[in-house]
Every structure is written in structure tokens, then in C-alpha cells.
Design goal:
Elements lengths: L4 H12 L15 H18 L5 E3 L1 H12 L4 H10 L9 H15 L6 E12 L6 H11 L2 E5 L4 H15 L17 E12 L10 E6 L5 E18 L4 E7 L4 E8 L4 H7 L6 E10 L1 E8 L1 H6 L13 H4 L10 E8 L3 E7 L12 E3 L4 E7 L4 E8 L6
Parallel strand pairs: 2-3, 9-13
Antiparallel strand pairs: 1-15, 2-4, 4-12, 5-6, 6-7, 6-9, 7-8, 8-14, 10-11, 11-12, 14-15
Helix pairs in contact: 3-4
Pfam families: Serpin
Keywords: Glycoprotein, Protease inhibitor, Serine protease inhibitor, Signal
Protein name: Kallistatin-like
């Protein structure tokens, strides 16, 4: 069966990654496809709800938080969480899923002088409620979660504690994530991811100039346009009418910029799932931009058939030892800044193709998608859509 280039460019990278024959036995390889499926399915739901807005989120942040939650889930609640995450228990056991996340988080957090990438988890637990020891032990073992007793009876103090933790872990880029805490809360699960990366071949600030960005047929805005004449790995799909340009960072991370032809954004978005490429000299024009997003996840996750955990039928007895527990709130906040030297990002919670002659100039001057991938582990770190670079 043939698939289009824009559809497969990213997914082929994820399927191949840098996996040698020996790498294929690593625990994290077993969760690559599930994580990729979750990432693109979640994007589809976000895009359907926010068609005219910028989008930025970290699928890994969301899936890691849900995976921690699944440690304490039982029965239908558990099966919904795992299926929603993209895992079929007949193919991948619970143990393999958690071992996969454990190895993945370990690999992503390895010290690297070329890129700053920090991913972690925390459980803020009600200091008046005793939680099941196995749940806490598994959260610490598989997800290296910090377990922090919290006084939820004083919501203002609890919010300050949690938000201060997130702000510190994301270098001040995310604050006031948690608001309106319930004094009866039993636990808050936090996953954070922070990345500062530098282009392998940075743009020259002196070549940045004001340019037009065509938001839609009626709207044009002026943006700082970064320009570079260099060799880039590029892709083209004449069926879906889109181009892909890969920009590598120093380290093991790359950004894929997917530029649909004018009016083809929806068509390309619908084709995103988990091409041929070639290296060619082009003149690239890319806007400098900063975007952020804040999502209430309940409705998005319900559309992905993760429903029971938000209802009175939820079985999270593996957390407290009692059945009377449900998730009342799920939020995700993300930030992305792309500039001449590289990218700063933070978040808490892919028909057969044929090479063609690349035009001498690729102008990313209308709405586009951006997917940031850690290639060594084949992991999608961030997915974004820039509808208007001037809207933060």
C-alpha cells in the first residue's frame, strides 16, 4: 500500500530512527509506534477544535502523565487508558509499556553538551491521604517521579508549591499552570519537558528581514523572516501538495517543517499518521516566532475513548486502595520559541513519493506544521501548527 510523502516522512523516521539490530531489543523501541500514533491522533482532535489558532503541545508529556495514572488503574479504566495511549495489551504488556517509558526517559535525560533536554515527573500527594505503596514505588522506579506531600486544604499554598516547581523545571517559561485547586484533591500528577536546542547550522541575524506572512486569503502580517542559503534535507509530495524541510539541531534532535500549498492545510493535517528524501541547496525563508497554548484535556481525551477515568465509574483503586477516586481535571500547557540560533520549548503534562527538482527558494510564509523529533529514540517531543506567527 502506498502512502504519501508528507504522511510518511515523519513516520518513517520514527520507524527507522537510529535503531541498529541490537537497538531493536531495547525497551523503548516497543513503545515508539504507540507514542507516535497517540501524538498524531491527539493532534487531529486539537486541530479540529482550534482550526484558526496556533497549536503547540508535547505528546510525550501527556502520554507519560497518563501512563503514570495507569499504574493505579484497574479493569476498564486501565484498558481504556492503555488503548487510548496506543497500546494493545495483547501485543504489549503493561510491564513492557512501563519499562519502555523508563528506558525512554532515561535516554532523553542523558547529559548532552550540545542540547539541554529535561523531562521529569512529580506526584503532589495529599498529606492527609495514604497512597498505595506499590503505586508510589512504581512511579518512582519507572518514571523517576518526585513524590511531594502537599497540603491541599490550603489551595493557595498548594498552587504556589506546584506552580513554583513547574516554573523552576521549565526555566521560568511556564507559570500559573495550576489554578482553582480542589481542597479535596488526592493527588496532582505533573509531567514537564524543557528543551533548549541550537541549530546545527544557525541563521545569521544580519540576514533576518521583515517579510509577509499570509495567514489566509484576507490577512497578511509582517514578520521577522530568517533567511539562509544552504543544503537541507527536503521532501515533496505532489499528491498532498506539501513540502517538508528538515532542520537538524546540534545533538540528536531535528525539526521538520511541513508547508502545505496554499489552501491545503486541512488535507495535509488529515493525512498525518505515524518519502523519499534528498539533500539539495535551497534558499530557505522561515519566520522567527514564539507561540504558546493551554489545553483542558478532558474533552480531547474523551474523543480518544479515554472516558471512564473522568467519571464516578473510574477504578483507580491501585492509587488509594479504595474505588472512590476519579480525575477531575487534566491540563496541558506548552511554549515554543524559534529563533536564529535555535529553539526553546517547554511543556507540562506519516503513497509512495518521488523526488523532484526543489525550487531555488522555499518560503515558509503561510500556515505550516512543525514536528520536533528526538531521532536516537524516535520520539516526537513537540507538535505545532503556526497559523499566525504574531500571535503568541
Amino acid at each position: 500500500m502506498c502512502r504519501s510523502c508528507c504522511q510518511t516522512t515523519i513516520s518513517q523516521k520514527l520507524e527507522r530512527g537510529h535503531h541498529s539490530l541490537s537497538d531493536r531489543d531495547l525497551p523503548s523501541v516497543k513503545i515508539v509506534q504507540g507514542n507516535a500514533d497517540f501524538a498524531f491522533r491527539f493532534y487531529h482532535h486539537v486541530a479540529s477544535e482550534t482550526a484558526e489558532k496556533n497549536i503547540i503541545f508535547s505528546p510525550l508529556s501527556i502520554s507519560a502523565a497518563l501512563a503514570i495514572l495507569s499504574l493505579g488503574a484497574q479493569n476498564t479504566t486501565l484498558s481504556q487508558l492503555l488503548l487510548g495511549l496506543g497500546f494493545n495489551q495483547s501485543d504489549t504488556s503493561e510491564q513492557e509499556i512501563h519499562e519502555g517509558f523508563h528506558h525512554l526517559l532515561h535516554m532523553l535525560n542523558l547529559p548532552n553538551a550540545e542540547i539541554k533536554l529535561s523531562i521529569g515527573n512529580a506526584l503532589f500527594t495529599n498529606d492527609q491521604v495514604k497512597l498505595v505503596k506499590k503505586f508510589l514505588d512504581d512511579a518512582k522506579h519507572f518514571y523517576e517521579a518526585d513524590v511531594l506531600p502537599t497540603n491541599f486544604m490550603n489551595p493557595a499554598v498548594a498552587e504556589s508549591q506546584i506552580n513554583g516547581y513547574i516554573k523552576n523545571k521549565t526555566n521560568g517559561k511556564l507559570d500559573d499552570v495550576v489554578q482553582g485547586l480542589d481542597p479535596e484533591a488526592v493527588m496532582i500528577i505533573v509531567n514537564y519537558i524543557y528543551m533548549t536546542a541550537f541549530w546545527k547550522n544557525p541563521f545569521n541575524y544580519l540576514h533576518t528581514s521583515e517579510g509577509d506572512f499570509y495567514v489566509d486569503d484576507q490577512t497578511t502580517v509582517k514578520v521577522p523572516m530568517m533567511n539562509k542559503d544552504s543544503r537541507f534535507e527536503t521532501y515533496r509530495d505532489n499528491i498532498l501538495s506539501c513540502e517538508v524541510v528538515k532542520l537538524p539541531y546540534k545533538g540528536d534532535v531535528s525539526a521538520f517543517f511541513i508547508l502545505p500549498d496554499q489552501g491545503k492545510m486541512k488535507q495535509v493535517e488529515n493525512a498525518l499518521t505515524s518519502g523519499s528524501s534528498f539533500n539539495r541547496r535551497i534558499e530557505l525563508a522561515l519566520p522567527r516566532f514564539t507561540i504558546s497554548s493551554n489545553y483542558v484535556l478532558q474533552e480531547m481525551l474523551r474523543k480518544m475513548n479515554i472516558t471512564e477515568v473522568f467519571t464516578n465509574r473510574a477504578d483507580l483503586s491501585g492509587i488509594t486502595g479504595k474505588p472512590e477516586l476519579k480525575v477531575s481535571k487534566a491540563i496541558h500547557k506548552a511554549y515554543l520559541n524559534v529563533h536564529e540560533n535555535g529553539t526553546e520549548a517547554a511543556a507540562t503534562t506519516v503513497f509512495e513519493s518521488v523526488p523532484y527538482s526543489v525550487p531555488p527558494e522555499v518560503k515558509i510564509n503561510h500556515p505550516f506544521l512543525m514536528v520536533t523529533v528526538h531521532e536516537k529514540t524516535s520520539t516526537i517531543l513537540f507538535i505545532g501548527k503556526v497559523k499566525n506567527p504574531n500571535e503568541t
